[in-house]
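Residues determine shape. We examine one folded chain.
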Amino acid sequence: MRVVIAGVLAALDGVEENLTDPPTSPVKYPDQLVCGVIVAVVSYAVFEWVGAAYYLLAGVLVGNLWEALSRMRLLKAKFST
């Protein structure tokens, strides 16, 4: 259980720097929460399944992908009307 807690805390701490950087962070607060949860879960899953040193970056990559898809969806809706 300690390993699980340590992994989650490490993921949240290391990714916090990348998530708070404006280019890699969603603008709205609820989106920031969702993105943070996605990054934490993916980081933990990559760490547990692969055990690779890049687990935090993998989480941030998925979080950025989610944000990019969200922005594309909003732009598509904005220009289609």
User: Anything to note?
Assistant: Residues 55-80 form the longest helix (26 residues). The mean pLDDT is 78. The chain has three helices and no strands.
